[in-house]
Amino acid sequence: xxxxxxxxxxxxxxxxxxxxxxxxxxxxxxxxxxxxxxxxxxxxxxxxxxxxxxxxxxxxxxxxxxxxxxxxxxxxxxxxxxxxxxxxxxxxxxxxxxxxxxxxxxxxxxxxxxxxxxxxxxxxxxxxxxxxxxxxxxxxxxxxxxxxxxxxxxxxxxxxxxxxxxxxxxxxxxxxxxxxxxxxxxxxxxxxxxxxxxxxxxxxxxxxxxxxxxxxxxxxxxxxxxxxxxxxxxxxxxxxxxxxxxxxxxxxxxxxxxxxxxxxxxxxxxxxxxxxxxxxxxxxxxxxxxxxxxxxxxxxxxxxxxxxxxxxxxxxxxxxxxxxxxxxxxxxxxxxxxxxxxxxxxxxxxxxxxxxxxxxxxxxxxxxxxxxxxxxxxxxxxxxxxxxxxxxxxxxxxxxxxxxxxxxxxxxxxxxxxxxxxxxxxxxxxxxxxxxxxxxxxxxxxxxxxxxxxxxxxxxxxxxxxxxxxxxxxxxxxxxxxxxxxxx
Length: 488
Fold this sequence. Notes:
Blueprint: E1 7-10, E2 15-19, E3 33-34, E4 56-58, E5 70-75, E6 81-82, E7 91-95, H1 103-118, E8 123-126, H2 131-135, E9 138-140, H3 166-176, E10 180-185, H4 187-203, E11 208-213, H5 229-248, E12 253-259, H6 266-275, E13 280-282, H7 296-307, E14 309-315, H8 341-356, E15 362-366, H9 379-397, E16 403-408, E17 411-416, H10 417-421, H11 432-441, H12 449-466, H13 476-486
Parallel strand pairs: 2-5, 7-8, 7-10, 10-11, 11-16, 12-14, 12-15, 13-14
Antiparallel strand pairs: 1-2, 3-6, 4-5, 5-17, 8-9, 16-17
Helix pairs in contact: 1-9, 3-4, 5-6, 6-11, 12-13
Catalytic activity: beta-D-fructose 6-phosphate + ATP = beta-D-fructose 1,6-bisphosphate + ADP + H(+)
Pathway: Carbohydrate degradation; glycolysis; D-glyceraldehyde 3-phosphate and glycerone phosphate from D-glucose: step 3/4
Cofactor: Mg(2+)
């Protein structure tokens, strides 16, 4: 049996709902039960307990008066009827991939949400990522055992890359009687979760498979942002501030800070905007060059003559095409192993000024890459993690499956796996946010006019399609392919 067909529902005025799968789609005559929240003291003051069955959230909120209503996602939240009795639920939680601030908060709130809202007492923690399912490494999770884990970084369950064997994982789920699986991880992890859902559906198991998106790089599409991102940007300020202090304390001082961002430069961009001490931000989406007019060396010399010091922030994936050593090696998750661009660019700058003898510089290089992802989440991310976890629990109890819980335009939603895994979210260097950064740092764009015009043409054509300038016979499938390209 192939992949599940997307559940796309069309309505008047160009309304499109990209719905998520439900257990009742492949298991007939499932019994339902009243939602326990009706008698939950915590919800006694809530005027409206439940989300309306037709509540949806639009993917695009900036529209014109003649715009079609566009793509929507199902709104998250508790439903009047649930498809699991509390005593029936055997839940499992797993964390996969790299670390991120907030992982322990999500684990805690999943356990506490299941227990306090729905009376679920059987929750397993799968240790060590996906391979923990078939290595039979599990721990019992209770509200008391997870009470304080949000105060420390990392994940109390442990994590790993790779180890995904769909059949072995689903065999373990079936053998253990697990009927709710909460999978916390990035785009590769969500692809694995999608494969698990497809196999669960193929076997006809009553088991909700739910993803919670995690990536410190903020490179998952559709959602407003990833949990832990705010904390990472905040923690990066400490490294940038240290680089600034070092640079301004000496004549012609240069501080170089390398931040995370393998393919997406969001951390570097937002950390630069937040700091205001950065003179140049280099990200993977914006190619740069070193030599010649408008190049990085020329800009560095200009800034040093003007200010006497400067700070450079570079994302780990920036400038990889300039490094002499290229590698096709990959880690266990299939990510390309990158060269250390921070060390390379620091040495290149030193060599250039030593060779040219125009200025005597002092360069300090700071690499806080893994420090910023190992800290506990801040207050903003803690709140966000709580909303994500509770929304995931509400959806699973209501019988939804094969979805990721995420924030879209400020509202919690359920997004089908295929939308989360279809592409990466990247900084658009012809967008206003990147223009704001260029205005703040006053750095060159390192982009020639021809490239900028071509990018603007592409963006304008996508905007025209999104704003309703498509033919009257545009199909639902065509619309659903238009919107992914312009999201975020």
